[in-house]
TrEMBL record:
UniProt-recorded Gene Ontology molecular function terms: DNA binding
An annotated GO BP: DNA integration
InterPro entries: DNA_brk_join_enz, Integrase-like_cat_sf
Protein name listed in UniProt: Uncharacterized protein
Keywords: DNA recombination
Protein source organism: Photobacterium leiognathi subsp. mandapamensis (Photobacterium mandapamensis)
Superkingdom, natural source: Bacteria
Length: 956
């Protein structure tokens, strides 16, 4: 979809992408020529084919001068930018040329090898001197320390950080540094708030804190470069002056050779704009009442007879605007809390008015992206788009279907003509992922492919995943199978890092469970009749899931053992994909938003799975026995060496890791995720780098006494450090020489100065898995009702719940189930699907007035004999035309005395009793009264379900 942009934006971004590496780039005029050539193919997707690239090269070749060479270089510059920064797929031969570009960058780094070695040795010597004698701060020393212990960033970034004391944050018990993106290449609107989080060592954190206490003047890049040149020309370095880029190459050389960082990761940590970090939600409220409603149908069928001509009722956001219009902004939140505590219900046929209500509410409460408070006129401008949406309703079911939602958005966008309207509707589209029903909306389809992809950063820990799983299983108002299908969708989405559609399209034949090792599960992600994979390719995913969670996956597989291979893994037989989205994914989204914040979406399970897969791969590669980070119990268990090895056994195939090519690790991980290139994984799924650098830089970390004294802010000669060590000995039995960095941080955080650091993450979530492998399964079964009769929230209704504990246990038992899942699916489909089955007191009274029903358990029939009159006809309609009774075949038998006119009775039967699917037999007799018998034959061949239904009908 075409988006509005300027060529200057793109050419600036291309130039930046090269100059940040110290690489040459053609001038903007030639880059613009290449962009115009690429545009000729009307690119709306981020891909250029071999034929398209060939036609561009042919056109360049027609130029009869040496300008050909310049444009070919400009083409390479542009393709490098599009591939690395915009996520374009390009032909494989061209990718090899991009690798050549990175080799040139590595050559520039290698040229600094000699000076880098001297610089590193000099730094270690100078650090020891600093810790022992505590000289005055030298900004050159601080910059060197940060570049060697934190990341080899450019001087532009270090100058910015040295002016921002608030850059230091405590994040999940880790000392971190917030680095704001400076690159112009990320030109989509949210990018101005993008940042990357880096890990600080205890020493660099203390160094920065002390520096900020004594800082006297603002630091500029030019001044920092001058100070660095001067500092590194002195003893013990004695290095000649270099330009800023050469110094960065020098520090990059240290990370490459001293820490063993692969070139692709070296590029990642050197350029903050290659990753986007996130602030975790600090105010997630674990509201039991809210969680208990995740399975509720929060939409209603509209009652058209109640609609009035008052447009404010049709667009409830206008009531919000009216309420705050003439009020000071200081009173707005109070007005919202007093008058608008309950949002309007979702109208099943059109949810746009309710979405716009939520959009307006958030604009009033939270303001805009840049301003905390928006003026009423600005809010009116943003929300006046309802006039553009009046003719484009969106049903609840269509909103839950990704393809239908995107088609609706495309239709709306294409109908607009002015640039202003395009921007306003784009801004509204950006809000859609914040709502549970539209959380899968893909805003990137409305962004220019020549600008970087927007990214929605967030991830959950394994502990948070299990807390969510626990919430899904423990709600009694969800039916047994719905809760199970939701739980398994969450597990596979998290551990398999699956997309929404991939979870929904899984079929029974696409999952293979290993009976010899219950933790191992293999998934096949392939094209199906319901849709294709994103890449159109088939891939196999090899999972290692903790046994309590894996048991739930096995349970679903067990229940579906009689189903056809092509039947959906999650859901009933013949259940539509739209229905499966609505009832098995939407409750997960609701739970995620309630527990972890309104910005969390189902797709973040894929982000999370990708992150932890990468974390497992790197820790296994680098031979970590346990994670060096402070995580919850479940996440720590996931990152043990044993768990990491088991996750990659499919790749090792029994070999030792030393026997395989570890350079293929990123390719192996990419294939598991369905990514052809690491670029996609890195930008869209790996958020921040605070989890990356410590894996390389702190493997052999030890703390000397002099450094401990500095960290504790005590005199270099003070002996009280031993009291601190003694306190450590009281808490751990191991030698202090193996104290790791995270343990040092944990103890330092008890000190006053570090204790006051801004913490941006809530208390660490921890979930300890039970030793009982059936723990989650037991929790699921504990919420299954013992009886078919349940009391409804309305006292005048009783609820029929056929998914009882006994029925579920029959489905999962080793014996032949009764009913089978196929029969159960047939009953589900005939009796109203996911709609609640209820009888009101009025309907039960009508049933009793019709007279007794004769039950034939052998033939699965109900029969009743009654007078054929209008009174009984109305009573019959009131009960037996409910969706529940579609699981019966109705046969009407009318025995009529030959002396009586049959036409009146036939008219009554056709009006009040019989439907087009029912059968009717009429007989005339010489003697006797008219006799009207109705026989209901239960269609599903299940005595168990039939008996349940009979018990429900005769209840009370």
């Amino acid at each position: 979809m075409k988006s509005h942009y300027k060529y200057d934006d793109i050419t600036d971004n291309i130039t930046d992408a090269h100059t940040q590496l110290g690489l040459p780039c053609e001038d903007k005029a030639h880059l613009e020529t290449v962009i115009i050539l690429i545009e000729k193919n009307q690119h709306t997707s981020r891909q250029i084919t071999h034929d398209e690239l060939r036609s561009i090269k042919i056109e360049i070749k027609t130029i009869p001068t040496g300008k050909q060479r310049v444009l070919r270089r400009a083409l390479n510059n542009t393709l490098y930018y599009l591939h690395q920064h915009c996520g374009w797929q390009i032909p494989q031969p061209q990718i090899k040329k991009l690798i050549d570009t990175q080799l040139i960058w590595m050559q520039l780094i290698s040229q600094q090898a000699n000076d880098a070695s001297r610089l590193y040795a000099g730094y270690l010597e100078e650090k020891r001197h600093f810790l022992k004698y505590r000289p005055e701060f030298n900004i050159g020393f601080i910059t060197v320390a940060l570049s060697i212990e934190v990341a080899p960033l450019s001087l532009d970034y270090w100058a910015d950080i040295l002016n921002r004391p608030e850059a230091i944050e405590l994040y999940e018990q880790q000392l971190t540094l917030i680095v704001h993106h400076q690159s112009r290449r990320v030109s989509n609107e949210p990018s101005s708030h993008y940042f990357t989080r880096y890990a600080l060592t205890p020493f660099t954190c203390r160094l920065l804190l002390d520096y900020f206490e004594t800082r006297k003047q603002k630091v500029t890049t030019k001044g920092l470069h001058k100070a660095l040149n001067h500092y590194l020309s002195t003893v013990p370095y004695g290095l000649a002056n270099k330009n800023a880029m050469q110094w960065q190459h020098c520090f990059q050389n240290i990370w490459f050779f001293e820490y063993g960082l692969p070139s692709v990761l070296l590029l990642d940590i050197s350029q903050p704009h290659r990753h986007v970090a996130f602030h975790p939600c600090k105010f997630h409220v674990r509201n039991d009442d809210s969680i208990s409603n995740i399975y509720d149908h929060d939409w209603h069928q509209p009652d058209y007879s109640t609609f009035s001509s008052n447009k404010s009722q049709g667009w409830p956001h206008r009531d919000l605007l009216k309420a705050v219009k003439n009020q000071p902004s200081s009173k707005w939140k109070a007005i919202l809390n007093a008058q608008f505590t309950t949002p309007p219900a979702w109208d099943y046929d059109n949810i746009i008015p309710t979405i716009l209500y939520h959009f307006t509410y958030d604009l009033i409460q939270f303001g805009g992206v840049k301003a905390d408070i928006l003026s009423p006129s600005t809010i009116h401008k943003y929300t006046n788009i309802y006039t553009l949406l009046t003719d484009h309703p969106l049903s609840y079911s269509a909103a839950c279907d990704h393809d239908a939602l995107m088609q609706w958005a495309t239709t709306v966008y294409d109908k607009l003509e002015s640039e202003g309207d395009h921007w306003l509707i784009y801004n509204f589209f950006r809000f859609l992922p914040q709502l549970s029903v539209t959380e899968h909306f893909d805003i990137t389809q409305f962004s220019s492919p020549f600008l970087s992809l927007s990214v929605d950063p967030f991830r959950l820990s394994t502990d948070q995943c299990f807390i969510t799983l626990n919430a899904l299983l423990s709600q009694s108002n969800g039916s047994a199978l719905q809760r199970l299908f939701c739980a398994v969708a969450l597990i596979l989405g998290f551990y398999g890092a699956l997309r929404r559609g991939e979870v929904l399209r899984l079929r029974c034949q696409d999952i293979v469970c290993n009976p010899d090792d219950p933790e191992r599960i293999t998934l096949c992600i392939r094209n199906t009749d319901e849709g294709n994979t994103k890449s159109k390719d088939t891939r196999f995913i090899y999972l290692s899931i903790p046994k309590p969670a894996a048991k739930l996956v096995y349970t679903v597989s067990r229940i579906k053992r009689h189903c056809l291979p092509d039947d959906p893994l999650l859901g009933f037989v013949n259940e539509t994909m739209a229905s499966r989205q609505l009832h098995y994914l939407l409750p997960i989204t609701k739970a995620l938003k309630i527990l972890w914040g309104n910005n969390v979406r189902f797709h973040h399970l894929r982000h999370s799975g990708a992150h932890w897969l990468m974390q497992q791969g790197l820790q296994f590669t680098l031979d970590w026995n346990i994670s060096p980070f402070s995580f919850g119990a479940a996440t720590q268990a996931m990152l043990t060496r044993e768990s990491c090895q088991k996750r990659f056994d499919f790749w090792l195939e029994g070999l030792n890791f030393s026997d395989v090519n570890d350079g293929l690790l990123f390719d192996v991980i990419g294939k598991q995720l369905g990514h052809r290139h690491y670029t996609t994984t890195r930008w869209s799924y790996l958020h921040g780098v605070e989890w990356l650098t410590p894996l390389f830089s702190t493997k052999d970390y030890t703390t000397e006494y002099d450094e401990l004294r500095y960290l504790l802010k005590i005199s270099p000669q003070c002996k009280s450090v031993f009291r601190f060590l003694k306190s450590l000995y009281s808490e751990r039995k191991e030698e202090i020489s193996i104290l790791n960095e995270q343990e040092v941080i944990r103890y330092l955080l008890k000190k006053k100065r570090l204790k006051e650091l801004q913490s941006v993450s809530p208390k660490q979530d921890s979930f300890t898995l039970s030793d009982d492998n059936n723990a989650f399964k037991t929790l699921w079964l504990s919420q299954c009702p013992d009886t078919t009769i349940q009391h409804h929230r309305s006292p005048s209704k009783t609820l029929f719940n056929y998914q009882t504990l006994s029925l579920v246990e029959s489905l999962i038992s080793d014996n032949e189930p009764e009913p089978t899942f196929l029969t159960l699916s047939q009953f589900w489909e005939l009796s109203g699907k996911h709609n609640s089955i209820t009888l009101t007191k009025t309907q039960r009274l009508a049933l009793s007035k019709l007279g007794p029903m004769i039950i034939d358990n052998e033939n699965l029939t109900l029969s009743l004999t009654l007078k054929c009159n209008k009174v009984n006809g109305l009573l019959f309609e009131q009960v037996f035309h409910l969706p529940l009774f579609r699981c019966f075949h109705f046969h009407f038998d009318l025995q009529q005395n030959r002396k009586t006119d049959i036409s009146n009775n036939l008219q009554l039967i056709n009006t009040h009793f019989k439907t087009s699917k029912d059968t009717l037999t009429t007989r005339t007799v010489d003697k006797g009264k008219t006799k009207f018998t109705i026989t209901l034959t239960f269609i599903p061949q299940s005595p168990c379900l039939f008996q349940m239904l009979c018990d429900f009908l005769h209840y009370g």
